Write a sequence for this structure.
């Protein structure tokens, strides 16, 4: 996901779930297959810290068993806590949030996310 209109589409009518380490915006796919974007804001610090938090997040995404059943476009935004938590705690929190994405009731005009 690299197009501005794709991000605008997700943020304009998305639902979201949030924890201390992540925020996930999700919506039914704009195109035929679901996509995901990883975002780290400048509030987290310098580029080294932002890149490290996105690398940790991408690895959590790869290892998550829930990903295969989610059929939504997602923007996953990291928070500064991502750098302070150990990887096992992050994985547990991330899987819990993805479970909430999967089981969230869709908006009236949307198709189911799972």
């Amino acid at each position: 996901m690299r197009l501005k209109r794709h991000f605008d589409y997700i943020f304009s009518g998305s639902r979201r779930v949030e924890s201390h380490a992540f925020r996930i915006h999700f919506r039914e796919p704009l195109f035929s297959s679901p996509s995901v974007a990883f975002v780290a804001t400048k509030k987290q610090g310098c580029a080294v810290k932002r890149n490290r938090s996105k690398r940790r997040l991408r690895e959590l995404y790869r290892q998550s068993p829930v990903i295969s059943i989610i059929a939504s476009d997602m923007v996953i935004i990291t928070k500064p806590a991502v750098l302070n938590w150990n990887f096992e705690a992050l994985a547990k929190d991330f899987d819990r949030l993805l479970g909430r994405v999967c089981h969230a009731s869709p908006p009236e005009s949307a198709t189911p996310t799972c």
Notes: The longest strand covers residues 22-27. The domain at 4-103 is CATH 3.30.230.10 (Ribosomal Protein S5; domain 2).
